[in-house]
Amino acid sequence: MSLAALLVQQKSQLELLLDITQQELELIVHRKALELPPLAEQKQTLLTQIQSTDAELANHPERERLSSDYLPQVNSLRQLVEQCQEQSQVAEQLLEQSLNGVRQLGNILSRLHERQSMTYDQKGHTKGINKGVGFKV
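RESULT FIELD:
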């Protein structure tokens, strides 16, 4: 495959990755976590394809032309990669904040429940354990 064709292929792959990343972000913002796994599978498949295209570009006999003749296209691809990384970081931060909120709410509910006492799990997060009915601590 020619360098030009590989660059066009990678551009379309990166544009699709950016679209999937934006969809992920929207799902997180709208709290539709159950719709994330299929999107994550698509993203993983696409990342594998992007790696394959990268390998083809790296092993191409005319790869030196990437830093001269095809420099504008390469720079455009780098910008797309940066956009994807930024979107992924924002989505990751939102997801972490959401998980922390859920964890805090769980802790509050556990504290309110009188038959439970608090302990820590392996990750250092608090969790309630049920002492059972009729036991007094």
